[in-house]
Amino acid sequence: MKKFVNRTSNKLFIHMQKHPEKFFSFVLNGIKAIRLDRFLSEELRSEGVSREKIKTAIRNGSCMVEKEICLDVDRKVLPGENISLCLQASPSQVMPEQGDLDILYEGMPGQVLMTVLLFVYLALIWLMEYITGVEI
Hints:
alpha+beta; Structural Genomics Hypothetical 15.5 Kd Protein In mrcA-pckA Intergenic Region, Chain A; 6-stranded mixed β-sheet; two-stranded antiparallel sheet; 3 helices; 29% helix; 24% strand
């Protein structure tokens, strides 16, 4: 699931996607310039995003300043500049549960073995026909 959070309007847009990502968009309000990584870490503190994860995302090309990709973590961001950041979502942890499993389908005993043997038999016949040139 792809999430886009626009900090200026506090709207959340969700799009389905194979690899989850979070998109953030900011505008620097203030009177002085600030380092890009510091600004983003302060803005994303409530999201639980570490400064190192932000630096990694910037170095990987997942950050744009004024619609241009920015790879420089210590770039000074000026007031009024638009900043966008795309973060890969953390993989969820799957925990085992105690309990019984319902078996929905169980093949006949030996069914897989018979299928494999039939396949090998037909492959050998084809190989013998191919090598000898005689149909069997």
